[in-house]
Specification:
The chain has 219 residues and is of the alpha/beta class. 36% of the residues lie in helices and 17% in strands. The protein has a six-stranded parallel β-sheet.
């Protein structure tokens, strides 16, 4: 059944788009906007499995990393500016999150391999804004995004929406995404995505559906 899954594409050309799998969220020793340790451990392990399959199947892995030159680039967002005044907000550290040169701006080392692409100019939830992500995808003939990372209800949701309106097929890999905002908002983000913007599947189903996709080099 899964092998005949219809994504509305004549030929599937996928890439993994891995959002903010960096130390600023997932390394409890340095994270400025951390997930829980349990979420970090689970997300890292799930993405490691998916990435190993992708690299073996010739599917590009593209890491998106949030990075700001200075606090001014963060404060330009009116809502974020107000989070620093709310000690209960999960984004209360946003004005010092992933400033250039900080350890948070590093992809978790166990998730990056030679040959992966890294886009380091992400500054907003939508990974297409202010980056060369779309250029990279189009240049490599990609028409399907396998979206992973954090946070489900912000960057994952915004990027999936942006990809959908650019006419990419999108699968959000359910066990490879999570959020620092708690299970209810994780589930709400996935509900929005599966309703209007793309497919939501666990990694095991993604691998079963795509195998070694047509037109992609074998391991």
């Amino acid at each position: 059944m899964l092998k005949s899954f219809d994504f509305g594409l004549d030929q599937v050309r996928p890439a993994v788009v891995a959002i903010d799998l960096h130390r600023g969220h997932l390394d409890m020793d340095v994270a400025t906007m951390p997930t829980s340790p349990e979420v970090a451990e689970r997300v890292i392990a799930a993405n490691d499995v998916l990435f190993r399959w992708a690299r073996g199947a010739g599917v590009p892995v593209i890491h998106l990393v949030t990075s700001y030159r200075d606090e001014t680039e963060i404060r330009a967002n009116p809502f974020w500016r107000t989070r620093a005044d709310d000690p209960s907000a999960t984004r209360k550290n946003v004005l010092r999150h992933n400033l250039e040169g900080s350890p948070g701006c590093t992809v978790m080392p166990q998730l990056q391999a030679p040959g992966d692409f890294v886009v380091r100019t992400k500054k907003r939830y939508d990974c297409f804004i202010g980056t060369d992500l779309e250029f990279t995808l189009r240049a490599h003939g990609i028409n399907m995004l396998l979206v992973t990372g954090v946070n489900t209800n912000s960057c994952v949701l915004a990027t999936t929406t942006a990809a959908n309106v650019r006419d990419f097929a999108v699968i959000v890999v359910e066990d490879c995404v999570d959020t620092m905002d708690g299970p209810a908002l994780h589930d709400a983000g996935l509900a929005c995505i599966r309703t209007a913007f793309g497919w939501v599947m666990p990694a095991v189903d993604v691998i079963a559906v795509l195998g070694a996709p047509e037109g992609v080099g074998a391991p």
